[in-house]
Amino acid sequence: MHALPSTFALGRMVPGAAAKALPMHRAFLAPCLASAAKRSLSTSCPRMNIMAGKKPDEKSTLGPGAEGPHIKDLPPKAPVPVNPTEKVIQGDWVLFHPVYTAEELRSVQVLSRDAKTFSDKLAHSFVKLARWAFDFASGYKHKPLPPNASEMSLEELRKGGYLMDETQWLRRILFLESIAAVPGMVAAALRHLRSLRLMRRDHGWIHTLLEEAENERMHLMTFMTLKNPSPLFRAMVLGAQGVFYNAFFLCYLISPSTCHRFVGHLEEEAVLTYTRCIQEIEAGRLPAWTDLPAPAIAKDYWRLGDDAKFLDVVYAVRSDESTHRFVNHSLANLKYETDVNPFALREPDMTTKGSRVCFERDESVKFVDEAHRLMQSKTGRPQ
């Protein structure tokens, strides 16, 4: 990256901030803002896939191990009716989100970032507390199997508290996803208000956080096709949302970085939970889900094949959670007042997001610089 007399960060000149703000070229800002404006105006606008350098109507040349085409890079499928009596929604009605190849779905690893600072330890402690509360409220349990598990029937293992059935798993997942969609929306709203208050651009954070919130909400909508929660369960969700929303709101006002670290650790737990669910399905311990077809909404959202199974849906959800894990831990490493969101225009491939916890701050600088060079090469602008 060329040396500049002052660092260009968040769309403004910050004298002497070369070591304090995530640097960007002046030339990079224009295409960034143009792309962000397109995404703000309409989610149906053609979007360049920077990874492949192709537009949505062109075939992708990505090979195995690279992140698959994104939602805007694929031809639309038949619209999915929300209700048979309602008007069918035409076109793509969700925000940008990744679509994965079969190899990418299985590249996710269960990882955990070590708490290094006081704020990291505080965030990790709150996650452990939240995990205990969620487990208690949803009835989730995961006991190690006994030595004679091979001699016990599925029913005996369930009665002994070693395994959960499909209903118990759904209760856990529905409760988890109804809460998981809160942080992204809260953070996006607060950054939106901050942008209005300071009268300057946010440069990428708001979009990524909104995409995360909607992605978590779509998880909930997908699993809702299997179970309609009872009034009591809905009341529990209402109470949990009220407490969690306001607590996260206040905490984000005090320390956004700690909150993103909290979400990163929370997503580590989500990846672990879905990994266990996958293992249970593949081991035949959830027989009702072994050959269950994927819901239509899941096939449309993740562009799954017509013969996709529910197991494929769980794999896709786990991949989403690993993305949130990576993004939030990476955002927690940045200076939220000045640094540019490195994922505003492109994301790392799924192999990276699935096998690493996050980008360190210097890696985010390199990632932005690489995005700059790719943008220049595609637009023909001088570097």
Automatic annotation (TrEMBL):
An example Gene Ontology biological process: alternative respiration
Swiss-Prot/TrEMBL keywords: Electron transport, Iron, Membrane, Metal-binding, Mitochondrion, Mitochondrion inner membrane, Oxidoreductase, Respiratory chain, Transit peptide, Transmembrane, Transmembrane helix, Transport
Subcellular location: Mitochondrion inner membrane
One Pfam family hit: AOX
Top enzyme class: oxidoreductase
Cofactor: Fe cation
GO cellular component term, pick one: mitochondrial inner membrane
UniProt keyword Transmembrane present: yes
Enzyme Commission designation: 1.-.-.-
UniProt keyword Iron present: yes
Single GO term (MF): alternative oxidase activity
Cofactor binding mode and count: Binds 2 iron ions per subunit.
Region of interest (Disordered), residue spans: 52-79
Family from the record: Belongs to the alternative oxidase family.
Function: Catalyzes cyanide-resistant oxygen consumption. May increase respiration when the cytochrome respiratory pathway is restricted, or in response to low temperatures.
Protein name: Alternative oxidase
